[in-house]
Amino acid sequence: METILKDFLNTSGKEIIQKDLHENFMLHLICLYDYQQINKDVMARIVMKFDEIRNKYNN
Amino acid sequence: MFQYINNFVQQRNKSHSNSECLICINRHTIKCANALEENEDKDFYVDFLGCILCKEEFKSFISLFVHIKINHEDFKCFIAQANNSDTRMKEGHLIIYRVKSHKHISFITNDDKNFCVVKDKEIEIKTIYKYLADADIHYMQNDKDSNSSIVTNSISKVRNSFASKGNTGNNIFNAKGLNLCQTTKNYKTYEDATNSGERIFFHSVTGEILNESSEDSDYEIDDEDNIKKEEKNIDQYTDICEKDKEFFKLWNRYIQTNRYHNYHL
């Protein structure tokens, strides 16, 4: 699941930021966490990766 | 038999060091008189018609031709049309030669029964041609040796002809042969397909020419069509905001295009 999310960020991260869908992405991560598809370590890594992508496109 | 072939190969190597390997096998080189007498009435007698490479037995002469054509692409099999003093080749001999390399020693064994045996006197070239014509197999003159013929035809045509022949062709397309055939790539070329006048079908993704044995590409689903349908369904929701819809579409498109939808998420 972690690789899927990372791949999703690599392919669609730009679109998420452009369309201002980062809140939806966070809600999606929380939903996956609630359903025990990812643990909190994975969640933290994905959020950090998302921040990297957001900083990259914002700059 | 073994000695005969050894002598022949040595002679062959002396005279043509870089030429192709030829093996001539006829009735007189093998002592099996009892078996010959039982089948005198037949047009041609075959004691043990088997492939010398994979040691598989065949019932008919044509099936051996097709077997070599399909499974051993490096080899060519033909029947001598006239006597040749240089190669000890006589009319009616079965000749198998390797096209590319000269590793003929690898398939010479001490066991005489592993070799193809063809009766040389009673056999007539016309009868062989008759069998070939019945099976709808075309043959052409060999460029290198004008005294010989090579059976050449597209695999699909041969397969169709044998499929209608019933027992004659069953030997070729057994489980072992079929597997070998399927693992052989590009055995039907574009030229074969165009010359035979068949309609050519290409694989939608890889672009390869499809044969009769090729897997049907119907299992391939048009993802784009499905994605658009699902996006229309998402748009029909009234209790979800536009951003949520956009994210749903984005996620669904990613999952479907990357084939992750087969897994439980």
Shape of chain B: elongated
Q: Categorize the overall geometry of chain A.
A: globular
Please tally the helical runs of chain B, counting DSSP H or I stretches of 4 or more residues.
10
Radius of gyration of chain B: 27 Å
Instruction: Calculate the terminal CA-CA distance of chain B, rounded to whole Å.
Output: 68 Å
Tally of strands of chain B: 5
Oligomer: heterodimer
How widely separated are the two ends of chain A?
Answer: 29 Å
| Percentage of residues in strands of chain B | 5-15%
Low-pLDDT stretches of chain A: none
Provide the succession of SSEs of chain A.
HHH
CA-atom Rg of chain A in angstroms? 11 Å
Roughly what percent helix of chain B? Answer: 25-40%
> What structural category characterises the helix and strand content of chain A?
mainly alpha
Largest β sheet strand count, sense and barrel closure of chain B: 5 strands, antiparallel
Short description:
The complex is a heterodimer of chains A (59) and B (265). Chain A is mostly helical.
Chain-wise SSE layout:
The complex is a heterodimer of chains A (59) and B (265).
Chain A: H1 2-18, H2 22-34, H3 40-58
Chain B: H1 2-15, E1 22-25, H2 33-38, H3 61-71, E2 75-80, E3 94-98, H4 125-134, E4 139-141, E5 148-151, H5 155-163, H6 167-170, H7 175-183, H8 190-195, H9 223-235, H10 242-257
Antiparallel strand pairs in B: 1-3, 2-3, 2-5, 4-5
